[in-house]
Design goal:
Elements lengths: L2 E2 L8 E12 L4 E11 L10 E4 L5 E7 L2 E2 L5 E4 L2 E4 L5 E10 L9 E5 L2 E5 L18 E11 L5 E4 L2 E7 L4 E13 L5 E4 L2 E8 L5 E8 L8 H18 L7 E7 L6 E2 L4 E5 L12 H16 L8 E2 L5 H19 L2 H20 L11 E2 L8 H18 L1 H15 L3 E2 L1 H12 L8 H4 L5 E9 L4 E9 L14 E8 L5 E9 L3 E6 L7 E4 L8 E3 L4 H10 L3 H24 L8 H12 L5 H7 L5 H7 L5 H18 L1 H11 L9 H19 L3 H13 L3 H12 L4 H15 L3 H12 L6 H8 L10 H14 L1 H4 L5 H14 L3 H7 L11 H15 L6 H11 L1
Parallel strand pairs: 2-12, 18-19, 19-21, 22-24, 25-31
Antiparallel strand pairs: 1-23, 2-3, 3-9, 4-8, 5-6, 5-9, 7-8, 10-11, 11-16, 12-15, 13-16, 14-15, 17-18, 20-21, 25-26, 26-29, 27-28, 27-30
Bound molecules: arginine (ARG) and zinc ion.
The site of arginine has 14 residues, from strand 20 and helix 2.
């Protein structure tokens, strides 16, 4: 049951107004929907029957047209649809459905999270609430009345502004909300519960006073300040950088603990996973704070890039997601350290998105087909999509890009459009032809750049030859060359910059010639990671060390160090396989010593430079993934660098161990990241005083960043007595903080010591674990499969069988999460025949199961193809 982009047809029917009334009760919810429907003058075929989407599990209680009740023979209900023939040109359809939110474990449509009602409608959840043309190009004005028990649900929220409210004599009360902005059904939301509120306000540039309200359970009221500050910063930033103002009198965010994704940009009523909105120094790590800031901004930015201008169909998902991720990344870069933010984003792209791009689920930024759209909320659509927008920004320059963005919003305000429309606006303002550039949207796979060079000392001429290619991906055997920006510097051996500029690549092979280059340069290629490609150039170790020391581009300084570490790690992997002793490069040790002794360096950058590439990243780079060799080589290098630089680690630790009050700003975050990295290296020496130091930090810390870092080190150590004591103490201290308990689970799930599978099996029985809660599933199952490769990939296939068992069980309950957690098994082709075979066995086991959800079926069947 596959849907194709090329089959797109405009909707036959439009809805001008959607009036909803929800009676929220403990045993059931009744929904009365009144839709004002007109035939679409732009539709090709007139006199089409009215077709509405509606989930099979939804009970249809009553249906009428212009007040006339329809009999069963007047309509047909089949899998997922309701069809009504012979309807007038303009009419009001009234429809009553009965829902069972308390039994809804899919967390799509209307469901209950910790006793409160909430909704998740993107992408296709609204059809679980009522029958509707549930597609993003049908936009209507919503008016929503919520009725519920006043004691249990004192707070009743929906999109827009509250316009009326009252009380019934039966203990129920009601509120009516009007949203003046036409919107697609996926942006509808409601919340009902007993919620605490943090309130603030923001005055827009043009003087509109906006009430800002963040709702959460009462116990979490003290964790909302950071989200509020982030929201205000984001609102100001969008005015200043994009000229975008908010357009309603109220902006609301609600925190819920049961949520499939990070957050959702429902018009005027964002619903957030607690993990992306709650923040408090005692319970939230620096990473957590930064995630809150980024996600709050992301959802806010959607108000323009997503809501005011939305997607024509779900193939265009990256139109809103790629653009909005680019916007939130720039916001975070402006609020914190630009280079560190870039390093983090590129690291995610290179590990997870590149892996996706070479997997059976690989797809273009604008996919051509899907079975279940939920499976396409991917790193490719989000992260690679953001890189595509970033390349437009680089090619056009900030000023033209802003003009293009202004034109895009002006042209398409109130419309549902395509990625072509976005690029067209950029073409208009720049006068450039971006036809070739659009291949970034239509071709999957990670392009490869092979660069070689030649220097003619007599002519002072430097030539750079760049070849591009892109490996095949499912359904795309041959790729055409991309148009991409290649930011370049030419650096002399002594570190002097001889040239800096931007090259544009369009051909399969291109030569660039630079005159007047008086010394043989080292190329600093793809500065700032100017395009999402794999770059190959035959650097010598000495050249990489020079760039690590002198490149003026912070990102490429870091990258030079990474390239060197990767090469050295790969050499050790080979030695490990050949049964030779591994060795740690003296040059690397000395380079790191210099970095560590350079107190002028920004601690955040230093920490980035002194972190070895993860096992996941080394896996992505491997021809065939050798789990044991990767782990052994990395552990060898880590412990060697730990021992060789013990004094330096201690000094770095002490330097960063200031007694400042906790603040999540870039400088303090940077100091803590270096401090905790240094602590990890110290502990890796396995010398006695350092575990005690970790324990001391655990006890004395006044923030979760320091406490958790120390906790993980002790919990994974061989000193089991201390470890068990701390595991208990941490549990005792934080058992009532659900988000902290997720960390407690993750630390144990990623413990690399023997017996890991037995430990996670036992933890799944622990009272803090709850298989209905996606955050708990990610914390335990996700962490074991993603961060404990050694054990997940046990040669006997036990890790795979355990995961498959979970998938089959979860698929009955929450297909979106089941399909998500399945990802590691889809990578089977990358492993040795024994492991690949074991993974295939589990995929086949799922395939042989009757009644798989569309979500899991799509992933499993494509993986086996
Ligand atoms: N649009 C949301 C965001 O990126 C993601 C929600 C997707 N939800 C889902 N169930 N697929 O901010
Ligand atoms: Zn988004």
């Amino acid at each position: 049951n596959t849907i194709y982009l090329e089959d797109y047809q405009p909707p036959a029917w439009l809805i001008s107004h959607t009036k909803l009334r929800f009676e929220l009760e403990e045993e059931q919810t009744l929904v009365r929907a009144q839709l004002s429907i007109q035939s679409n003058p732009a539709a090709r075929d007139k006199r089409m029957p009215l077709e509405l989407f509606g989930d099979e599990g939804m009970e249809l209680c009553r249906l009428s047209i212009d007040g006339q009740i329809l009999e069963a023979c007047d309509y047909q209900r089949e899998a997922g649809y309701l069809r009504i023939n012979n309807v007038p040109d303009t009419f009001v359809l009234e429809c009553v459905t009965r829902l069972l939110p308390h039994e809804n474990t899919t967390l799509e449509g209307l469901y209950k999270s910790d006793g409160m009602f909430c909704t998740q409608c993107e992408a296709e959840g609204f059809r679980r609430i009522t029958f509707f043309p549930d597609r993003p190009d049908v936009m209507s004005v919503f008016s929503t009345t919520l009725v519920a028990d006043k004691c249990l649900y004192p707070v009743l929220l929906s999109n827009g502004n509250p316009v009326d409210s009252g009380e019934d004599d039966d203990g129920r009360h009601w509120v009516t909300w009007d949203d003046p902005w036409p919107k697609p059904s996926y942006l509808f939301a409601l919340v009902a519960g007993d919620l605490a509120l943090l309130e603030d306000s923001f005055t827009t540039l043009s003087g509109r006073e906006v009430a800002l309200r963040i709702y959460a359970e009462r116990k979490d009221l003290d964790k909302l300040d950071y989200a509020m500050q982030s929201l205000k910063n984001a609102m100001r930033w969008d005015e200043e950088v994009y000229g975008r103002e908010y357009d309603l009198d109220i902006y609301m965010i609600v925190a819920v603990d049961f949520f499939n994704m990070g957050a959702m940009e429902n018009k005027g009523l964002n619903i957030f996973n607690t993990s992306c909105v709650l923040a408090h120094p005692l319970t939230t790590t620096d990473q957590g704070f930064q995630r809150v800031e980024a996600v709050v901004a992301h959802e806010y930015f959607h108000n323009w890039s997503g809501n005011r201008v939305t997607c024509r169909d779900w193939f265009q998902l990256s139109l809103k997601e790629g653009f909005t991720v680019f916007r939130d990344a720039e916001f975070s870069a402006d609020m914190n350290s630009r280079t560190v933010k870039r390093i983090e984003d590129v690291t995610l792209l290179r590990t997870a998105q590149f892996a996706e791009d070479s997997s059976p689920m690989a797809h273009p930024v604008r996919p051509e087909s899907y079975m279940e759209i939920s499976n396409f909320y991917t790193l490719t659509v989000y992260e690679k999509g953001a890189e595509v927008v970033r390349m437009l920004h680089t090619l056009l320059g900030a000023e033209l890009f802003r003009q293009g963005s202004d034109l895009y919003f002006e042209r398409h305000d109130g419309q549902a459009v395509t990625t072509d429309d976005f690029v067209a606006a950029m073409e208009t303002v720049s006068g450039r032809d971006l036809t070739q550039f659009k291949r970034w949207y239509s071709q999957a796979g990670t392009p490869r750049l092979q660069v070689s060079d030649q220097y003619d000392a007599r002519a002072c001429e430097y030539r750079l030859t760049v070849r591009q290619s892109c490996p095949p991906s499912p359904g795309q055997d041959h790729k055409q060359p991309y148009h991409l920006p290649l930011a370049l510097g030419l650096v002399a051996e002594d570190g002097t910059e001889l040239y800096a500029g931007l090259l544009e690549l369009t051909g399969e092979e291109q030569e660039f010639c630079f005159d007047n280059i008086k010394q043989c340069p080292v190329p600093s290629l793809l500065r700032g990671f100017s395009a999402p490609v794999k770059l190959e150039y035959d650097y010598s170790d000495a050249q990489l060390l020079m760039l690590l020391r002198h490149d003026t581009d912070g990102f490429n300084r870091w990258d030079a160090g990474q390239r060197l570490s990767i090469r050295l790690l790969q050499e050790q992997m080979q030695r490990y396989r050949d049964g030779q002793p591994m060795v740690c490069s003296e040059a690397l040790i000395e380079a790191w010593r210099q970095l560590l002794n350079d107190t002028a360096l920004d601690p955040a950058m230093l920490a980035q430079c002194l972190r070895l590439p993860s096992e996941a990243q080394l896996s992505e780079l491997a021809e065939q993934i050798d789990v044991a060799a990767i782990h052994a080589a990395r552990e060898f290098m880590r412990t060697s660098l730990a021992a060789a630089l013990e004094q330096e680690w201690l000094q770095a630790y002490q330097r960063c161990d200031t007694n400042e009050l906790y603040a999540p700003d870039a400088d303090a975050v940077g100091r803590r990241s270096l401090k905790n990295l240094a602590l990890a290296y110290l502990v890796a020496t396995e010398r006695e005083p350092w575990l005690a130091l970790a324990r001391q930090q655990y006890q004395q810390s006044d923030n979760m960043t320091d406490q958790l870092a120390a906790f993980a080190l002790v919990a994974h150590s061989d000193d089991r007595e201390t470890a068990e004591e701390l595991l208990q103490a941490f549990y005792q201290q934080w058992q009532h903080e659900s988000l902290v308990m997720n960390q407690w689970l993750s630390v144990q799930a990623s413990d690399p010591r023997d017996g890991a599978l037995e430990r996670v099996v036992a933890l799944a029985q622990h009272p803090v674990f709850d298989m209905r809660n996606p955050n708990k599933l990610r914390a335990l199952i996700g962490a074991f499969c993603g961060q404990n490769a050694q054990h997940f990939h046990a040669e006997d296939g036990s890790g795979y069988a355990w995961l498959a068992g979970w998938i089959l069980q979860l698929d009955q309950q929450n297909p979106q999460i089941a399909a998500r957690l399945l990802t590691p098994l889809t990578r089977w082709k990358r492993y040795d025949p024994v492991r690949a075979g074991q993974m295939q066995v589990q995929l086949q086991r799922m395939m042989d199961t009757t009644e798989l959800s569309a979500d899991v079926y799509e992933v499993v069947s494509k993986s086996l193809m």
